[in-house]
Amino acid sequence: MVPLSYYLVLSAILFGCGVAGFLIKRNIITIFLSIELMLNGVNLSFVAFAAQLKSLDGHIFVFFVMVVAAAEAAVGLAIIISVFRTRETLNVDRVNLLKL
Amino acid sequence: MHLWIIPLLPLAGAAINGLLGKRFSRGLVTTIALGSTALAFAMALWVAAQFAGLPPDQIPHIERYGTWLGAGSFSAEFGIYLDQLSLVMLLVVTGVGFLIHVYSVGYMEHEGGYYRYFSYLNLFMFFMLTLVLANNYLLMFVGWEGVGLASYLLIGFWFLKKSAADAGKKAFITNRVGDFGFLIALFLLIKHFGTLQYDSLWPLIGKYPAETAGAGLLTAIGLLMLIGATGKSAQIPLYVWLPDAMEGPTPVSALIHAATMVTAGVYMVARSHLVFNRAPDAAIAVAIIGTLTAIFAASIGIVQTDIKKVLAYSTISQLGYMFMACGVADYVGGIFHLVTHAFFKGLLFLAAGSVIHGLGGEQDMRNMGGLRKYLPYTFWCMTIATFAIAGLPPFAGFFSKDQILWSAWSSGYRVLWLIGVITAGMTSFYMFRLWFLTFFGEYRGPNPETAGHGHDADAQHAGHAGAVHDAQDAHAGGSHGHGAPHESPWVMVVPLMILALLSFVGGWIGVPHSLHGSDHFGSFLSPVFSATAAAAESAEEHGEASTELAFTAISVAVGLLGLLAAWWLYYKRPELPAKMAKAAGGLYTFVLEKYKVDELYGAVFIQPLIALSLNVFWKGIDRGLIDGAVDGGAAGAREVSDEMRHMQSGNIRSYAGWVAVGAAAVIAFMVWRGVR
Questions:
Q1: Interchain pair B653, A26: CB under 8 A
Q2: S-S: B495 plus which of A79, B103, B170, B407, CB 3.0-4.6 Å?
Q3: B649 and A19: CB-CB below 8 Å?
Q4: Domain harbouring A59, CATH code
């Protein structure tokens, strides 16, 4: 059996990649993908713990996260499309009309 | 008897004129101001008549209208305490006050701020009546402070003139110093007796053992009261404000700074006679202060050239006599002199005002002379007043001053008597000097023939017309374009005549037994001072009537001597005084400059205070500490915000970065604390 720590390290790597992408990338779509990456990194640690502890709680959490992620993706993509329509760009640094 | 109406009448007058007077015609302002005062005087007369009918056991007559303030066991009421002493004061204040109101109508005719003037004058009457009628020290203190306020407002009446505004401030601040002493005396009374109501305080003090050997609580209270009295009544060391107070309109000088307000200190000491009775050290301090002030001020008065300044120093000197009398426990004599002084000093000031008015603002006696033919009525009134203050019989001042000197002798303080007699001679001298300089010899002012103005009745005030100015304008009305000296209008002369009559006969109410009089005044007032009078009475028994007569003769002789000296120096040989002044040299200048007391106070108290306030309190504490703390706080907040501002860049990725940093920080914290 693969030890728990392997899952956790992989989960941390995925999460770290997500954070790094989120901070570095300028394209909104990429940022969006990075968020999904972070969520899934967390999901991985949830199921790893669930398997290790023989508990269903982790699985339930994962389902919740996936539902929320799906909803978020729907809303987020809609926003991205409307931003692109008005601003004609996907660069977050340009989406700064609220800045003084 | 509804005594509360008396003080409230002038208050109503002050309120109506003060709030609405600007829109009123002069006639209406005059009616309101004079009407309220006249009614108050009429009511005072009615009260006096009622008072005479009161059975002795109902004296003092006390009226209570309710509690003013209560704190724990202490309480002060609104109430009126009417005994012989306050009745005398009531009559003097309303009577002389009314006459001076009438006179003011003429004197202030050409001045701006007419309604303001009468509003202040009525306000003064209200506070003075509160002072003399109050039935506790706290209410008296309200009046005490209030007359100070009215005095300040009226001295600075021509407030655009810097010297007048400064004089007002000087009077107020100097009085503040004295009030501080008075206030502490009141605190001591509250602390040790728990009340300031006269009727409950006197028995408590009466039970207190007399401090014949050594000093104690009552001595402290007495001395502090004396400090208060020296402020209000212009005694050494706080007299310096009174000469400067002459910047105010002359009727104000007459009413406030001669006849009534400055006697408040004497009234207060007389009112507190039980305290001084049981604290002989404090009482003798009163006598010494009074005597020193009397001779000190008289010596300055001799060399002054401003007619009002002479009268101002004379007032200080006469107030000194009153304190001398109170200090040797002759309160009746002190109050008697207060009354006669109110008559003749009020008259002197009003007559001087009439002269100043007639000369269009000239106050320097060196520019007067020979006015006898121009101002005949004023001259005769002034003559009576001068004889009265010089203490020559049968005028009013003779009886009161003689009584004071006799009490000083019979009380055993012979030195005080000697100084008093010398002062009497000086008083006579400087008053007759004023009289001769002003009314005799040749007119030394601008030549009336070349002054250009005709002098018929219509043109009488043509010169003034040019001087019609707003109150805002300084009293520069002065001598420009003024015609020949002229007699004042009737509205000014009639009060002079009434006061002249009073200065003539006013003393007859207290003709001493030694002159086969019946001393009505003494027997009227003595119940108030019965506790004190017993001692004084016995002393008086010892003195033979013939001895008293001899002393009377001495004081009359001294008065005549002053008259002769003034006649010789200022009428017969008018070139002599200048030579004598030259011979005296530095001494003369020193006295002329009022012994440099103002400069001394300036160097000792005022300059260090200003330096302290400027360098420590303003630049050090206010600007350094307080402003520094506020400014420093603001600057610090700005510095921090300047840094924090960068967080809120509007850049989404930097926000994300901050979120990540925050999350990392939280995780780090949890790891550090140990997650469970």
A1: yes
A2: B103
A3: no
A4: 1.10.287.3510
